[in-house]
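Narrative of activities, Objective 1.

The group set out to show that a structural description can be obtained from nothing but a protein's sequence at a throughput compatible with the screening campaign. Below is one input-output pair from the validation batch, recorded exactly as produced.
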Amino acid sequence: MKSNKNHIFLDTNVLIGAFSGKELDKKCLQYLYSLTGKHLYISTLSIAQLVSVFQKKQTNAKIKEIVKNLITKFTLIGFSDKDVALSLNFEGTDMEDNIQYVISRKFNCFYFITNNRKDYVNFFNIEVLKPNEVRNISQN
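Output recorded for this entry:
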């Protein structure tokens, strides 16, 4: 399965960081939003994780505002029991990262943006970037 350099997948930790006020993660999102000709993706798993993390930190109204923002900027990729089963075939150090990788491959994402690069060293057909490296992604 060939990767598409116009497809960018964002990991949960960057989303949580951005909406928690981490400056590098916020700047990463701003840059990604500015790109033209690129398709931005997150998983439905990421939405659930973000809601779970913020449930005790934010009001429901604020969480809904964040989710509404995300669904206007990103294409959400769902996952199934088959995706979870496929993720069991990978030797990544973090099971959730295995699942995110499998989800990102459903749309042939080339770029995978995460704060945990070390957790993705065993995966192929992706270029893993940290939020401070997204400017390496060109407009076209």
